[in-house]
Amino acid sequence: MKVGLFIPCYIDQFYPHVAIATLKLLESVGCEVDYPLQQTCCGQPMANSGFENLAGGCNENFVRNFSGYDYIVSPSGSCTLHIKDHLHATNESEATTIRSRMYELTEFLTDVVNVSSLNATFPYRVGLHQSCHGQRGLGLAQMTERMLPPFSKPVQLLNLVDGLELVQLDRRDECCGFGGTFCVTEEAVSAKMGKDRVADHLRHGVNYITGVDVSCLMHMEGILKRSNSNVQIKHIAEILTATV
Predict the structure, then answer these.
(1) pTM exceeds 0.70 for this model
(2) Where does the Cysteine-rich domain lie (predicted)?
């Protein structure tokens, strides 16, 4: 299968190692991966701020870059959800096709590739942050308020990693407070939510916090660094390709 790799701008600028880990992971499960060099922002920041009319250039560019692939995969739940729900362009037929072929990394590995084993080792206590866009928008995990049997696609993959001890949290699907532009317009509320989310992980003695959205992890990483914590963050792609 031919996969177009979409890397969100904050990963490209601040966490390029996550993009590299994603590429390695996709290639390790047999995908032919291509990275369109002219890709840019998906337009989510403008749309979330009420200016979707300003995201037209991003939409047109996305269609130009990602037409013709069997699948488009991204290591970001929020950007994936934005494309799946809001991508429109002059060539609406192609935009519709792209929306149907857009996948977040973990759902692609579990639902399309059907990964059942990984050559990965990560002997640490890990707490999983299940981001809101992925959980409630993409259905990557069950919501606790629904009182239905639990499932989690990220957990399914993490359980394939040798030596990893997945820690059970008190409030496993609580928002971290990042919320894109929310952390700018409601800074105090965002920071308090982030501190509460981090505290849950710290109470359970994790060595690492992981998740499918670098944006949420970046938010919590800032809180950890400001408190001089030894706990580190790692995107799930980094753990699924780890060998030590």
Answers:
(1) yes
(2) 3-84, 126-220
